[in-house]
From TrEMBL:
GO terms for biological process: coenzyme A biosynthetic process. It is found in: Cytoplasm. The keyword Protein biosynthesis does not apply. Its cofactor is Mg(2+). Pathway: Cofactor biosynthesis; coenzyme A biosynthesis; CoA from (R)-pantothenate: step 4/5. GO terms for molecular function: ATP binding; pantetheine-phosphate adenylyltransferase activity. The gene is coaD. This is Phosphopantetheine adenylyltransferase.
Amino acid sequence: MKTAVYPGSFDPITNGHLDIIIRSAKIFDEVIVAVLVNPDKKGLFDIEERVELIKKVTNGIHNVKVESFSGLLVDFMKTKDANIIIKGIRTVSDFEYEFQMSIMNKKLDPTIETVAMMTNPKYSFVSSSSVKQVAIFGGCIKGLVPENIENNIILRVNEQKR
Ligand code: PNS
């Protein structure tokens, strides 16, 4: 069984992320979306909430699982018996960053392979941080994030303004 891991912060998950998950789930037997626990960085959503939001938007894709991890990605992957990392690439700067990270991960564990998937051009400008910024200043996030979590984002942004 080929298990692939799609790691990230997902604060929040965007349509770009979801597109990568859907396409990966067609290629691999199982895709584990792995949400990084970063205690130093307070996000819009806490880890449990991010996991729940991703579960909500991937509900119905039978071979997608959502989990959180802390520490090194390669260590988490060992516990899952997985050696494929999926990354989405939007820009040349994404490529440079991911290229370095893939070499570091390979140094840490030579059995690891990173598979880079090119973004759907519809979402090449979408990032979690830009979605947050647009939402904070009252802009429209329709089409940038899955429809069924739009309100969760708007509500949370408004809560944090108070
Ligand atoms: O969505 P992001 O924030 O770009 O995702 C970054 C992530 C989670 C993929 C990356 O920070 C990561 O893998 N962190 C775990 C720590 C690790 O394994 N570092 C070694 C590779 S440099």
